[in-house]
Amino acid sequence: MYAIQRLELEHENILAFTNYAQDLAISIMEGAEINRDQLKKMVAFIRTYCDGHHHKKEEDYLFKRMVEDLGDLAVKLVRQGMMVEHDLARKCVIDLDGALDAYDQDPSPKNRLEVISYLMAYVHLLRDHAQKENKVVYPFAVKHLSKEAMDWVDQETKAVEDREESKKIYRDFREFIKEIPQESQD
Ligand SMILES: [Fe+2]
Ligand SMILES: [Fe+2]
């Protein structure tokens, strides 16, 4: 259960991030300046923590064993559900990053709307995705994976945590928030 507990804890951080992103989208909608540094840091946080750390562990260990061990229903749930959504999230971040660059070149209302839209698209996608994993996918894995499979997932997850602990990646939301420029927290 170590791996599942880690993943659930990371969902809490990711959901806190989505709340932060939504608040920012509202302030931009109400006329606040688009702070490129702040939003580029958010893009980096998504890529490093939400995708590179969290989604990767799901794909490499938990989902891998679900697909290998649990048959058609798990294959459908993982490949046609969760993995597709991971790819959609990656596409959404590419689009958000592109919208920031476009706004930098031309700060038009259209490009401002694009930034807000992609930010909110990511918020909606990740909220829905984390909820499905918490309520359906993880409980399904806990119920059906063997003890041997779960032990393997735990062991591999622990190895990643130990390895990345020293890499100073954004380990949780509080660390991320500390690095956001002060003026953009107003
Ligand atoms: Fe996921
Ligand atoms: Fe997840």
Structural account:
This protein has 186 residues and is mostly helical. It has a single domain, classed as nmb1532 protein domain like (Four Helix Bundle (Hemerythrin (Met), subunit A)). The protein is 85% helix and 0% strand. The protein is built from 6 helices and no strands. It has helices at 2-29, 36-69, 71-105, 109-144, 147-165, 173-178. Helix 3 (71-105) packs antiparallel against helix 4 (109-144). The longest helix is centred in the C-terminal third of the chain and has 36 residues, at 109-144. The N and C termini lie far apart (40 Å). One fe (ii) ion binds next to helix 1, helix 2 and helix 4.
Instruction: Give the count of helical stretches.
Output: 6
CATH topology: Four Helix Bundle (Hemerythrin (Met), subunit A)
Oligomer: single chain
User: What general form does the structure show?
Assistant: elongated
Radius of gyration from the alpha-carbon trace, in angstroms: 18 Å
| CATH top level assignment | Mainly Alpha
Tell me which CATH architecture applies here: Up-down Bundle
Query: Which small-molecule species are bound to the chains here?
Result: fe (ii) ion
Spatial separation of the terminal alpha carbons:
40 Å
Annotate the secondary structure layout:
Blueprint: H1 2-29, H2 36-69, H3 71-105, H4 109-144, H5 147-165, H6 173-178
Helix pairs in contact: 1-2, 1-4, 2-3, 2-5, 3-4
The structure holds fe (ii) ion (2 copies).
One fe (ii) ion (FE2) binds at residues 55, 58, 82, 86, 129, 133.
InterPro entries: Hemerythrin-like (IPR012312)
Domain Hemerythrin-like: 4-141
GO cellular component, one term: plasma membrane
